[in-house]
Each structure stands twice: as structure tokens, then as C-alpha cells.
Amino acid sequence: MKNDVLKEIGIRISEKRKQKNYTQEQVAEMMNVSIQMVSNLERGNKAIKIENLIKISEILDVSTDYILTGKYTENDKKVLTEKLSQLDDKNYKMIEMLIDYYTE
Fold this sequence. Notes:
This protein is mainly alpha-helical. Helix content is 75%, strand content 0%.
């Protein structure tokens, strides 16, 4: 893989990890790999093995497609819809306003 592609994959992993409020150490433990491995993935220093790609996508609750390409799948959108359905009315309205702002 080209270095740029690896860096983009690493950025997506890092962003999703931070959104889930996980440390690199927590992700490493859940994946049963070293912290150094997670760090290398996030910095784009190493290509991700298929088994690790599957593990990290499950941990971060995103598709492997998203990690590799940055494109969301229909399943990713369903997960987001499920999260939206759990919001109270006030927070739902706030998210709705944000969506309206970005789609106009």
C-alpha cells in the first residue's frame, strides 16, 4: 500500500477511536495486540492485516469499507440511525439542525 493510503487509514482509525473515547491501550487490549501496533496503524507506519482490520472495525463500530476507503456503507448509516433514535427530543433537534445546516 502507498504511504498516503496508510496514513489516511490511520487517521480514520484514530478519529473513530477518539470518538469512542478509547485509548490506544484499550484498543490494543481488545484486539490482543501491542500498543505499538495500534500506534503504528494510526500513524500509517504499517499496513493492517485482514484479521486486525476485522477486529478494529468491530471495536470501533464501523465497516471495514470505511476504514479502508473512508466511505460509509448502508450498515454504517443504520448504526447512526439507531444512535439517533436513542436521543432525547432536545438532542435530536440539535442534531437535526446540524444536518439541515450541512445539507443546505
